Amino acid sequence: MTVEDLLFFAKQHIHSDHAKILIAELLNCNPLELLNYLEKRIPEEKVELLKREIKALEENTPLQYVLGNVNFYGNKFYVDERVLIPRFETEELVENTIKYINRFFTEPVDIIDLGCGSGVIGLTLEKKVSTKTVDLVDISSSALEVARKNCGNLNSNANIIQSDMFSAVNKKYDVIISNPPYIKTNEEIEDIVKENEPSIALYAGEDGLDCYKKILENIKEHIKEKSLIAFEIGMRQANDIQKLVNKYLPDSKTEVKKDMSGKDRMFFIFFGIN
Fold first, then answer.
1. Which of 16, 147, 234, 273 has the fewest CB within 10 Å, making it most exposed?
2. What is the DSSP letter of 7?
3. Separation between Cα atoms, residue 215 and residue 9, nearest integer Å
């Protein structure tokens, strides 16, 4: 079959954009370049692979799991059903964190990524700012296998630590960052998310605050004289997280930033930073 034949076949079964992405992945090219390859013949084994991928999409498997990768802040990361699929909002968290690190720190920083999943946050920061150490922490051993794979793919020196937030961590950090589970246990979410992505990476108790509580109740043992703490949050959680900060880190300053959709999405805590 030619690329043109495959495009016609795929578009009969799945969204046109998904068809282009899958076929471009087979050819190792940009989807925008497919017009240059319409007459190219595709080996039978790749045709069969494409058919399996189309079937998976028809069965409501997320595109990122079908591809086995996701583009995040300019790098390609391996993902599968053991980890949450990184979202654009998390890129916004990373973007703002990079700006704050560059503004407030003149020396290389120690960074911890709590609930790291695939490792996209910590590994991106390692590439974009000057670091002494980067620690990738998750309670899930299977998620850490994915993070370890991404470390290898990106030639990272990050440390992999299995821990329930700070429970197995004995160190202080300049930057503490987390996109933890923050969905309420009884909250309705999209079927494609609920049926495919790991529940341990989604849900955080009746109020969705369990992970923030775990982090903040132990935060003083892990911050330096000057530290930045960065959270991704649910769009209605800023006030509740502020109450936790007032309880556990009353001498800090805070800032809530909205995502591109205009929803509260990032919560920054500045300790010892003026």
1. 16
2. H
3. 50
Whether the Cβ atoms of residue 143 and residue 120 lie closer than 8 Å to each other: no
Q: Which two tokens stand for residue 118?
A: 């695939």
The tokens for 206 are 């009746």
Q: Give me Rg for the CA atoms of the chain.
A: 21
The DSSP output letter for 117 is T
Residue whose pair of structure tokens reads 């240059």 in the numeric block? 36
pTM comes to 0.93
The DSSP string of 169-226 is: ----EEEEEE----B-TT----HHHHTTS-GGGTB-STTS-HHHHHHHHTGGGSEEEE
Provide the residue type at 121 as one letter.
I
Interval 188-194 mean pLDDT: 92
Distance CA 66, CA 240 (A): 37
Q: How far apart are the first and last CA of the chain?
A: 63
Is residue 228 within 8 Å of 100, Cβ to Cβ?
yes
Q: What is the pLDDT of residues 77-89, one digit of tens each?
A: 999 999 999 999 9
Helix (H), strand (E) at residue 52:
helix 44-58
